[in-house]
Amino acid sequence: MTTITTFDRSAGIAVWRQIMETLKAEIVSGAFEKDRRLPPESELAARFGVNRHTVRRAIAALTSEGILRADQGRGTFVASAPLSYPIGPRTRFSEIVSGQDRSPSGRLIGSEIEEADALLAHQLDVPLGTPLLRVATLRVADSVPMIVGTSWFEQARVPNFVADYAESGSITAALKKAGIDDYRRKETRITAELVEARDARQLGLALGQPVLVVESLNLDMAGRPIQYTRARLAADRMQLVVDGGGV
Length: 247
Hints:
Layout: H1 15-29, H2 41-48, H3 52-64, E1 68-71, E2 75-78, E3 83-87, H4 93-98, E4 104-115, H5 118-124, E5 131-141, E6 144-154, H6 161-168, H7 171-177, E7 183-194, H8 197-203, E8 210-220, E9 225-234, E10 238-242
Parallel strand pairs: 3-10
Antiparallel strand pairs: 1-2, 4-5, 5-6, 6-9, 7-8, 8-9
Helix pairs in contact: 1-3, 2-3, 6-7
């Protein structure tokens, strides 16, 4: 006997989206492992008490996010779960992605020198007008874009950062070449907004979709600010897990 999952149709959220979020939560929890076949549309429609068209729309949305894949003649399979992304004192994109059996990479999408305004001078603890290196990056897991980030560094401390990052695709590796062997997260601030057009193109998102905005400040091991970042995360592809000691 099929157990029917009911939804609140007065909640202001489309039923297909509620189905999508339910399936996504089950994939994240491990109920549907990678490469496992989803039940047929007819079975899911019976479970959720909807027609097959509604189920098909939810599956299409998850497929467009790279969470599901359709194999012609075989069915729909779990391609990958949303990336679980811990936020704590040692937040390292490459380590996090590699630890979940995915392949991390980073790409430089822009850089320039600018003078520190009041906000950046405060964050990086430098005088107003100090030359800063602003770097825009795209972080990718298994060829799926995850994060567009803008980071600021005191330019004098990382004079060859652009070339070093372009070569390695790793902020940690580029900082090591500048003599900064390790660093830690001082604070993280998380908000949300609708994706801007430029970020939508980089992340492969439709305008109007939400992104998580993560502002962070990293310190070197002497406690001196080294990196201030404003990152925009594809909300449907990532799940933030906040370490109690990291904020």
